[in-house]
Design brief:
Elements: E1 5-10, E2 13-15, H1 18-27, E3 29-30, E4 34-40, E5 47-53, E6 57-61, E7 67-68, H2 70-79, E8 85-94, E9 98-107, E10 111-115, H3 116-128
Antiparallel strand pairs: 1-5, 1-8, 2-5, 3-6, 4-5, 6-7, 8-9, 9-10
Length: 137
């Protein structure tokens, strides 16, 4: 059986509290190494960060050993200024049997996620004007 290999990267985004963001990253579980970088802000006192994972971030581990990502999103939301988003992009493959990816866009008030294959299916149906079309990837 092949293993799914993925890579994850966020945009460079502004936060209000570096210490709290560091706690989020330190508690985030993954199947790879998580890197966290601080970038120079455009204004004095501005904190900009970015993170990368050579794998998939699973979320926080629960008491029963499962993982939940929604609490990670909610924690990031508390650190975002009103006019900022955190975008997390993940892509991967399993010995090229399939390739997939997803994007997660987080703002202070809401979040949205979409898979690459799901998006391709929707757009194929829209372009062809055929809601029954099945994309065979």
């Amino acid at each position: 059986m092949a293993n799914y290999l993925s890579w994850t990267k966020s945009n460079i985004f502004r936060i209000t509290d570096k210490e709290k963001f560091t706690d989020i990253i330190n508690n985030l579980q993954s199947d790879g190494i998580i890197e966290f970088h601080e970038h120079d802000g455009d204004k004095e006192g501005e904190i900009k960060v970015q993170f990368m994972v050579d794998g998939t971030p699973f979320g926080y581990e629960t008491e029963n050993g499962d993982f939940e990502f929604t609490p990670v999103i909610e924690d990031i939301q508390t650190l975002l200024p009103d006019d900022e988003v955190c975008v997390i992009i993940e892509s991967g493959h399993e010995k090229l049997r399939y390739i997939d990816g997803s994007v997660l866009v987080i703002s202070k008030e809401t979040y949205f996620s979409k898979g690459l294959v799901e998006y391709a299916q929707e757009k194929s149906r829209e372009i062809l004007r055929n809601n029954d079309y099945v994309l065979d990837i």
